[in-house]
Amino acid sequence: MQIDVTFSCDDGHAMRAVLTMPDSTSGRRLPALVMVYELLGLTDEMKRVARDLASEGWIVLIPDILDRGARPLCIARALRAISKGEGQAVDDLEAARRWLAARPEVDPDRMGVIGFCLGGGFALLLAMNGKYKVAAPFYGEAPDPMPRSCPVVASYGARDTTFARFAPKLQKNLATLGVPHDVKVYPDAGHSFFTHTPRGVLGYLGRIGPLHAEHHEESARDARARVVAFFREHLEGEGARRDAAANDDLA
């Protein structure tokens, strides 16, 4: 089930969002994800990704963090928030997390964040705030320094000459912190390899530019499998073991 919702930001702004639920919750409180979209915004492709994640048994919320006026200005503010580590978009994402955590279907102790492109930078930023069990950034700008982090599964495309350079730094930072991590660079992929890039002029410019932004199916399949396995271990964790034990008792 996928529905349009709104939640209240700290300043009272009613922010649009899309909430995606698994087909069946079986009356259990489920792990949940805040999903931060790519630069193109709240597209049908981002909604498709949310449905795919929900099929694994996770509740997914995509807050529309660019809905505060003119899109170019919102994008500029969001990019500045990533570089500074604070700002309106960071506050809005925290409001989204609190709203999601308060839902009766959600286990507030099992929350993760996943992000793409612009959202990848936010996912890494939020990984450091101590409020998420796991983070999955795709082609995100790695913050430096990283004083702390939750477990991270990160994916980059080697043909993306703008963002692939962040992978070694992220790998080093996470290893220094001693947190579980899986950072992988796909040699045949570029930016946005996980999603289906738009057609037309915008898609063409993305493909021929330094990002080499286009879908790469083999890399996308592998990245999905890595994310799912990492989330099973670090997001579901003890809660999944409790559910399995309860099912055994019922049996």
UniProtKB/TrEMBL annotation:
Domain of life: Bacteria
Protein name, UniProt field: Dienelactone hydrolase family
Keyword Ribosomal protein appears in the UniProt entry: no
InterPro entries: AB_hydrolase_fold (IPR029058), Dienelactn_hydro (IPR002925), Dienelactone_hydrolase-like (IPR051049)
Domain Dienelactone hydrolase residue range list: 15-234
Entry annotated with the keyword Hydrolase: yes
UniProt-recorded Gene Ontology molecular function terms: hydrolase activity
Species, as recorded: Sandaracinus amylolyticus
Keywords tagged on the record: Hydrolase
